[in-house]
Design brief:
Elements: H1 3-32, H2 38-67
Helix pairs in contact: 1-2
């Protein structure tokens, strides 16, 4: 497998992690609206934000490797 194809595959996996993190973030935002579930919503949002950040860092790393 060529290096460029491999890097694009890894960047695609990073995008998947970003999208999963974004979906989890949205679920946490939805959960936060009822007053009883505010703390649960914040925790879920934090997990979603973390996954989004990890995915973004992964995609940026793959792009930097592809440029070099």
């Amino acid at each position: 497998m060529e290096e460029s194809t491999l890097i694009l595959t890894y960047a695609g996996l990073g995008l998947v992690v970003m999208m999963i993190g974004f979906i989890i973030f949205l679920q946490g935002t939805i959960l936060e609206h009822p007053e009883q579930q505010q703390t649960l919503g914040r925790r879920v949002r934090n997990i979603g934000t973390g996954l989004f950040a990890i995915g973004l860092a992964y995609v940026v790393g793959c792009i930097v490797i592809a440029i070099i």
